[in-house]
Amino acid sequence: EVTMPRPPRRRIISVSNQKGGVGKTTTAVNLAVALALHGNRVLVIDLDPQGNASTGLNVPHHAGVPDIYDCLIDSAPLDAVTQPVEGIPNLWAIPATIDLAGAEIELVSVVARETRLHRAIEASTMQYDYIFIDCPPSLGLLTVNALVACEEVLIPIQCEYYALEGVQALTANIELVRSHLNPNLDISTVVLTMYDRRTRLADLVEQDVRSHFGDKVLDVVIPRNVRVSEAPSYSQSVVTYDPGSRGAVSYFEAAKEIALRGAEQTGEQE
Ligand code: ADP
Ligand code: MG
Protein backbone atom coordinates (compact mmCIF):
# COMPACT_ATOMS: atom_id res chain seq x y z
CA GLU A 1 0.00 0.00 0.00
CA VAL A 2 1.48 3.28 -1.12
CA THR A 3 -0.21 5.69 1.31
CA MET A 4 1.03 3.87 4.41
CA PRO A 5 4.21 2.07 3.38
CA ARG A 6 5.44 -0.70 5.64
CA PRO A 7 8.47 0.45 7.64
CA PRO A 8 11.90 -0.98 6.79
CA ARG A 9 12.04 -2.42 10.29
CA ARG A 10 9.72 -2.93 13.22
CA ARG A 11 8.64 0.23 15.03
CA ILE A 12 7.65 0.01 18.69
CA ILE A 13 5.65 3.03 19.79
CA SER A 14 4.57 3.76 23.35
CA VAL A 15 1.49 5.96 23.55
CA SER A 16 2.00 7.78 26.80
CA ASN A 17 0.86 10.73 28.88
CA GLN A 18 0.36 10.37 32.59
CA LYS A 19 -2.83 12.40 32.38
CA GLY A 20 -5.97 10.33 31.98
CA GLY A 21 -8.57 11.07 29.34
CA VAL A 22 -6.28 12.80 26.83
CA GLY A 23 -6.86 10.29 24.03
CA LYS A 24 -4.08 7.73 24.54
CA THR A 25 -6.22 4.66 24.04
CA THR A 26 -8.30 6.18 21.25
CA THR A 27 -5.11 7.17 19.44
CA ALA A 28 -3.36 3.82 19.92
CA VAL A 29 -6.40 1.85 18.75
CA ASN A 30 -7.24 3.99 15.74
CA LEU A 31 -3.68 4.31 14.48
CA ALA A 32 -3.24 0.57 14.84
CA VAL A 33 -6.44 -0.26 12.95
CA ALA A 34 -5.74 2.33 10.24
CA LEU A 35 -2.23 0.96 9.65
CA ALA A 36 -3.48 -2.63 9.65
CA LEU A 37 -6.22 -1.80 7.14
CA HIS A 38 -3.45 -0.48 4.88
CA GLY A 39 -1.47 -3.69 4.93
CA ASN A 40 0.79 -3.25 7.94
CA ARG A 41 1.16 -6.05 10.48
CA VAL A 42 0.30 -4.46 13.81
CA LEU A 43 0.21 -5.50 17.47
CA VAL A 44 -1.49 -3.50 20.21
CA ILE A 45 -0.34 -4.17 23.77
CA ASP A 46 -2.87 -3.04 26.35
CA LEU A 47 -0.78 -1.97 29.33
CA ASP A 48 -3.58 -0.20 31.20
CA PRO A 49 -5.40 -2.22 33.89
CA GLN A 50 -8.60 -0.48 32.78
CA GLY A 51 -8.42 -2.54 29.58
CA ASN A 52 -9.92 0.15 27.35
CA ALA A 53 -7.83 -0.78 24.34
CA SER A 54 -8.96 -4.40 24.72
CA THR A 55 -12.57 -3.21 24.80
CA GLY A 56 -12.10 -0.93 21.80
CA LEU A 57 -10.66 -3.78 19.76
CA ASN A 58 -13.30 -6.24 20.98
CA VAL A 59 -10.64 -8.56 22.40
CA PRO A 60 -11.81 -10.75 25.30
CA HIS A 61 -10.26 -9.55 28.54
CA HIS A 62 -12.39 -10.96 31.32
CA ALA A 63 -10.71 -12.48 34.38
CA GLY A 64 -8.82 -15.64 33.49
CA VAL A 65 -7.95 -14.66 29.90
CA PRO A 66 -4.17 -14.85 29.31
CA ASP A 67 -2.95 -11.25 29.31
CA ILE A 68 0.07 -8.98 29.50
CA TYR A 69 0.24 -9.53 33.26
CA ASP A 70 1.23 -13.14 32.59
CA CYS A 71 4.21 -11.92 30.55
CA LEU A 72 5.32 -9.30 33.02
CA ILE A 73 4.95 -11.25 36.23
CA ASP A 74 4.93 -14.94 35.27
CA SER A 75 7.27 -14.77 32.23
CA ALA A 76 4.64 -16.17 29.83
CA PRO A 77 5.80 -15.88 26.20
CA LEU A 78 4.34 -12.84 24.43
CA ASP A 79 3.03 -14.95 21.56
CA ALA A 80 1.08 -17.14 23.99
CA VAL A 81 -1.03 -14.22 25.19
CA THR A 82 -1.51 -12.61 21.78
CA GLN A 83 -4.94 -12.74 20.13
CA PRO A 84 -5.92 -11.95 16.55
CA VAL A 85 -8.35 -9.03 16.37
CA GLU A 86 -11.54 -10.32 14.82
CA GLY A 87 -12.57 -8.76 11.53
CA ILE A 88 -9.27 -6.96 10.92
CA PRO A 89 -6.57 -8.93 9.13
CA ASN A 90 -3.00 -8.07 10.13
CA LEU A 91 -4.03 -6.86 13.57
CA TRP A 92 -3.27 -8.58 16.87
CA ALA A 93 -3.73 -7.53 20.48
CA ILE A 94 -2.56 -8.49 23.93
CA PRO A 95 -5.34 -7.73 26.40
CA ALA A 96 -5.14 -6.36 29.91
CA THR A 97 -7.33 -8.05 32.49
CA ILE A 98 -8.08 -7.01 36.05
CA ASP A 99 -4.92 -8.91 37.07
CA LEU A 100 -2.83 -6.07 35.71
CA ALA A 101 -4.09 -3.77 38.47
CA GLY A 102 -1.74 -5.56 40.87
CA ALA A 103 1.25 -5.56 38.56
CA GLU A 104 2.48 -2.08 39.46
CA ILE A 105 3.07 -3.28 43.04
CA GLU A 106 4.12 -6.84 42.21
CA LEU A 107 6.75 -5.69 39.71
CA VAL A 108 8.66 -3.95 42.48
CA SER A 109 9.99 -7.25 43.76
CA VAL A 110 10.47 -8.97 40.40
CA VAL A 111 13.96 -9.49 38.95
CA ALA A 112 14.79 -7.09 36.10
CA ARG A 113 11.55 -5.31 36.80
CA GLU A 114 12.09 -2.50 34.27
CA THR A 115 12.96 -4.76 31.34
CA ARG A 116 10.27 -7.45 31.55
CA LEU A 117 8.25 -6.15 28.61
CA HIS A 118 11.35 -5.50 26.51
CA ARG A 119 12.54 -9.08 27.01
CA ALA A 120 9.10 -10.49 26.22
CA ILE A 121 8.88 -8.52 22.97
CA GLU A 122 12.40 -9.46 21.92
CA ALA A 123 11.55 -13.15 22.41
CA SER A 124 8.46 -12.97 20.17
CA THR A 125 8.77 -14.80 16.86
CA MET A 126 5.93 -12.86 15.23
CA GLN A 127 6.81 -10.39 12.48
CA TYR A 128 5.24 -7.02 13.15
CA ASP A 129 5.65 -3.71 11.38
CA TYR A 130 4.27 -1.79 14.35
CA ILE A 131 3.78 -2.49 18.02
CA PHE A 132 1.69 0.09 19.87
CA ILE A 133 1.83 0.06 23.66
CA ASP A 134 -1.17 1.74 25.28
CA CYS A 135 0.20 3.06 28.59
CA PRO A 136 -1.70 3.64 31.83
CA PRO A 137 -2.17 7.20 33.13
CA SER A 138 0.80 7.07 35.49
CA LEU A 139 4.58 7.09 35.45
CA GLY A 140 5.00 3.88 37.45
CA LEU A 141 6.73 0.63 36.55
CA LEU A 142 4.24 -0.30 33.84
CA THR A 143 5.03 2.88 31.95
CA VAL A 144 8.76 2.42 32.62
CA ASN A 145 8.47 -1.05 31.07
CA ALA A 146 6.86 0.51 28.01
CA LEU A 147 9.58 3.18 27.75
CA VAL A 148 12.32 0.57 28.02
CA ALA A 149 10.67 -1.66 25.41
CA CYS A 150 10.16 1.00 22.72
CA GLU A 151 12.24 3.40 20.68
CA GLU A 152 9.49 5.91 20.03
CA VAL A 153 7.12 7.70 22.35
CA LEU A 154 3.94 9.17 20.94
CA ILE A 155 2.37 11.78 23.21
CA PRO A 156 -1.28 12.66 22.71
CA ILE A 157 -2.01 16.14 24.02
CA GLN A 158 -5.52 17.33 24.63
CA CYS A 159 -6.09 20.95 23.68
CA GLU A 160 -6.98 22.40 27.08
CA TYR A 161 -5.50 24.45 29.90
CA TYR A 162 -2.37 22.98 31.54
CA ALA A 163 -1.89 20.68 28.56
CA LEU A 164 1.88 21.13 28.61
CA GLU A 165 2.27 21.07 32.39
CA GLY A 166 1.76 17.34 32.81
CA VAL A 167 3.90 16.64 29.78
CA GLN A 168 6.97 18.05 31.56
CA ALA A 169 6.89 15.22 34.11
CA LEU A 170 6.63 12.72 31.27
CA THR A 171 9.52 14.34 29.41
CA ALA A 172 11.66 14.19 32.56
CA ASN A 173 10.83 10.51 32.96
CA ILE A 174 11.72 9.81 29.35
CA GLU A 175 15.09 11.51 29.95
CA LEU A 176 15.72 9.32 32.99
CA VAL A 177 14.89 6.13 31.12
CA ARG A 178 17.01 7.26 28.19
CA SER A 179 20.09 7.92 30.31
CA HIS A 180 19.85 4.80 32.46
CA LEU A 181 18.00 2.09 30.61
CA ASN A 182 17.29 2.81 26.94
CA PRO A 183 19.63 5.14 25.03
CA ASN A 184 17.55 4.76 21.85
CA LEU A 185 14.43 6.28 23.38
CA ASP A 186 13.01 9.36 21.71
CA ILE A 187 9.79 11.35 21.58
CA SER A 188 9.02 10.84 17.90
CA THR A 189 5.47 12.09 17.67
CA VAL A 190 3.03 14.46 19.33
CA VAL A 191 -0.66 14.36 18.39
CA LEU A 192 -3.14 17.09 19.27
CA THR A 193 -6.41 15.47 20.29
CA MET A 194 -10.01 16.52 20.89
CA TYR A 195 -9.38 19.76 19.09
CA ASP A 196 -12.30 22.18 19.05
CA ARG A 197 -11.85 24.75 16.30
CA ARG A 198 -14.51 27.03 17.74
CA THR A 199 -12.44 27.85 20.80
CA ARG A 200 -9.58 30.30 20.92
CA LEU A 201 -8.05 28.16 23.64
CA ALA A 202 -7.51 25.22 21.30
CA ASP A 203 -5.67 27.52 18.94
CA LEU A 204 -3.45 28.87 21.74
CA VAL A 205 -2.62 25.40 23.02
CA GLU A 206 -1.81 24.29 19.49
CA GLN A 207 0.63 27.19 19.04
CA ASP A 208 2.20 26.41 22.40
CA VAL A 209 2.64 22.72 21.65
CA ARG A 210 4.02 23.39 18.16
CA SER A 211 6.59 25.89 19.43
CA HIS A 212 7.63 23.47 22.19
CA PHE A 213 7.81 20.23 20.16
CA GLY A 214 8.43 21.60 16.65
CA ASP A 215 8.09 19.14 13.80
CA LYS A 216 7.42 16.22 16.14
CA VAL A 217 3.83 17.47 16.15
CA LEU A 218 1.74 15.89 13.40
CA ASP A 219 0.32 18.37 10.89
CA VAL A 220 -3.12 16.83 11.26
CA VAL A 221 -5.02 17.49 14.48
CA ILE A 222 -7.70 15.14 15.78
CA PRO A 223 -11.00 17.03 16.15
CA ARG A 224 -13.42 16.49 18.97
CA ASN A 225 -15.99 14.33 17.22
CA VAL A 226 -18.91 12.47 18.72
CA ARG A 227 -18.39 9.48 16.43
CA VAL A 228 -14.99 8.91 18.08
CA SER A 229 -16.56 8.69 21.52
CA GLU A 230 -19.42 6.47 20.32
CA ALA A 231 -17.22 3.85 18.67
CA PRO A 232 -15.98 2.08 21.84
CA SER A 233 -19.55 1.32 22.95
CA TYR A 234 -19.82 -0.74 19.75
CA SER A 235 -16.46 -2.37 20.55
CA GLN A 236 -14.96 -0.67 17.54
CA SER A 237 -12.43 1.92 16.49
CA VAL A 238 -13.91 4.97 14.80
CA VAL A 239 -12.01 4.14 11.62
CA THR A 240 -14.13 0.99 11.23
CA TYR A 241 -17.31 2.28 12.95
CA ASP A 242 -17.67 5.34 10.73
CA PRO A 243 -14.77 5.62 8.27
CA GLY A 244 -16.15 8.81 6.72
CA SER A 245 -16.47 10.74 9.98
CA ARG A 246 -14.14 13.64 10.68
CA GLY A 247 -12.57 11.71 13.53
CA ALA A 248 -11.85 8.67 11.37
CA VAL A 249 -10.52 10.70 8.45
CA SER A 250 -8.13 12.55 10.74
CA TYR A 251 -6.89 9.29 12.30
CA PHE A 252 -6.28 7.84 8.82
CA GLU A 253 -4.35 11.03 8.03
CA ALA A 254 -2.36 10.75 11.27
CA ALA A 255 -1.48 7.12 10.51
CA LYS A 256 -0.32 8.13 7.05
CA GLU A 257 1.91 10.89 8.44
CA ILE A 258 3.44 8.48 10.94
CA ALA A 259 4.05 5.88 8.23
CA LEU A 260 5.62 8.38 5.85
CA ARG A 261 7.82 9.88 8.56
CA GLY A 262 9.01 6.41 9.52
CA ALA A 263 9.95 5.75 5.93
CA GLU A 264 11.81 9.09 5.80
CA GLN A 265 13.70 8.65 9.07
CA THR A 266 15.55 5.67 7.72
CA GLY A 267 16.21 7.31 4.40
CA GLU A 268 13.84 5.06 2.50
CA GLN A 269 11.65 6.38 -0.23
CA GLU A 270 8.01 5.49 -0.46
P1 ADP B 1 -6.90 8.03 27.74
O1 ADP B 1 -6.55 6.68 27.18
O2 ADP B 1 -5.78 9.01 27.62
O3 ADP B 1 -7.42 7.95 29.13
P2 ADP B 1 -9.16 7.93 25.95
O4 ADP B 1 -8.61 7.62 24.61
O5 ADP B 1 -9.78 6.79 26.70
O6 ADP B 1 -8.08 8.65 26.85
O7 ADP B 1 -10.21 9.10 25.74
C1 ADP B 1 -10.93 9.61 26.85
C2 ADP B 1 -12.40 9.80 26.47
O8 ADP B 1 -12.51 10.78 25.44
C3 ADP B 1 -13.03 8.54 25.92
O9 ADP B 1 -14.36 8.47 26.37
C4 ADP B 1 -12.97 8.72 24.41
O10 ADP B 1 -14.01 8.03 23.75
C5 ADP B 1 -13.12 10.24 24.29
N1 ADP B 1 -12.44 10.75 23.11
C6 ADP B 1 -11.16 10.53 22.76
N2 ADP B 1 -10.85 11.19 21.63
C7 ADP B 1 -11.97 11.85 21.25
C8 ADP B 1 -12.31 12.72 20.15
N3 ADP B 1 -11.42 13.03 19.22
N4 ADP B 1 -13.56 13.21 20.10
C9 ADP B 1 -14.47 12.92 21.07
N5 ADP B 1 -14.22 12.12 22.10
C10 ADP B 1 -12.99 11.58 22.21
MG1 MG C 1 -6.48 4.80 28.13
Automatic annotation (TrEMBL):
Residues 11-187 form the AAA domain. Belongs to the ParA family. May play a role in septum formation. It comes from Planosporangium flavigriseum. This is AAA domain-containing protein.
